[in-house]
């Protein structure tokens, strides 16, 4: 019986069987659990790491593809800019050349116009008494008030009988209407004429005649005749005739 001190508190002792194999198995189970937990943690970490790397690689591949697309578009834009720059330079040179050509042509036209004026003066002086002339112009009354007969005779002075005179003539009636000066072309007042420029084509002479009807309220003052020939010589005529009616 163990020694005890009298009056001290005594602890109750429990007697357990001694089982060293069971303790070893428990210890091994604990160690295996810790090892399995460690391996599971490492495997999960490795899986997450590999998954993250795959995601990063996919993102990197996508970024590289986007970069290549942007670089391609950038190169295309640079090419288009270069083409536009060259086109702009060519357009500028073409514009300068066109403007230079226009200036040259305008200068040439001005010179030709001066030459035309000079030659017309020379021809007019040489043909003043030859070629196209106004032979006769008459106005006569009819039985109906306001209606008149007209007759214009155009001749070719010094005609040789072989050459046609080609040209045209305009006939206008100038007068007063409602206290204002008004001009009517022969085409406006005569159904016998349907052209403003009456065509001339004859060897010796050509008669232009018909009936005209004056508008109501119109008082004629004079007749304006403007004629021009292109062949056999260039010539222009401008002559006014007073409104004189035969038989009144």
Write up what this structure looks like:
The chain is α+β, with helices and mostly antiparallel strands. It has two domains: 25-126; 131-242, Immunoglobulin-like (Sandwich), CATH 2.60.40.1400. It is built from two helices and eight strands, in the order αββββαββββ. The strands form two sheets. Strands 3, 4, 5, 7 and 8 form a five-stranded antiparallel sheet that branches. A three-stranded antiparallel sheet has the order 1-2-6, with no helix packed on it. The chain is rod-shaped, with a radius of gyration of 60 Å. It starts with 19 loop residues before the first helix and ends in a 6-residue tail after the last strand.
Predict the CATH topology of the largest domain. Answer: Immunoglobulin-like
Rg measurement, Å: 60 Å
* Coarse shape: rod-shaped
CATH architecture assignment name of the largest domain: Sandwich
For CATH, the homologous superfamily of the largest domain is named as: G protein-activated inward rectifier potassium channel 1
- Helix and strand string, N-terminal first? HEEEEHEEEE
């Amino acid at each position: 019986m163990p020694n005890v001190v009298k009056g001290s508190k005594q602890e109750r002792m429990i007697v357990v069987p001694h089982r060293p194999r069971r303790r070893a198995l428990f210890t091994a189970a604990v160690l295996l659990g810790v090892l399995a937990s460690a391996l599971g943690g490492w495997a999960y970490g490795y899986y997450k790491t590999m998954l993250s790397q795959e995601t990063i690689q996919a993102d990197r591949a996508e970024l590289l593809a986007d970069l290549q697309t942007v670089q391609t578009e950038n190169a295309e834009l640079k090419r288009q800019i270069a083409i536009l720059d060259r086109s702009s330079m060519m357009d500028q040179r073409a514009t300068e050349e066109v403007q230079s050509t226009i200036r040259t042509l305008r200068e040439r036209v001005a010179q030709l116009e001066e030459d035309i004026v000079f030659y017309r003066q020379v021809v007019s002086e040489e043909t003043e008494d030859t070629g196209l002339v106004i032979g006769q112009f008459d106005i006569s009354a009819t039985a109906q008030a306001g209606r008149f007969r007209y007759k214009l005779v155009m001749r070719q002075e010094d005609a040789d009988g072989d050459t046609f005179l080609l040209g045209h003539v305009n006939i206008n009636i100038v007068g007063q209407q409602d206290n204002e000066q008004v001009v009517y072309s022969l085409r406006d007042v005569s159904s016998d004429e349907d052209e403003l420029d009456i065509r001339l084509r004859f060897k010796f002479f050509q008669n232009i005649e018909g009936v005209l009807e004056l508008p109501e309220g119109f008082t004629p003052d004079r007749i304006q005749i403007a004629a021009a020939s292109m062949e056999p010589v260039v010539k222009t005529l401008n002559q006014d005739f007073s409104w004189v009616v035969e038989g009144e």
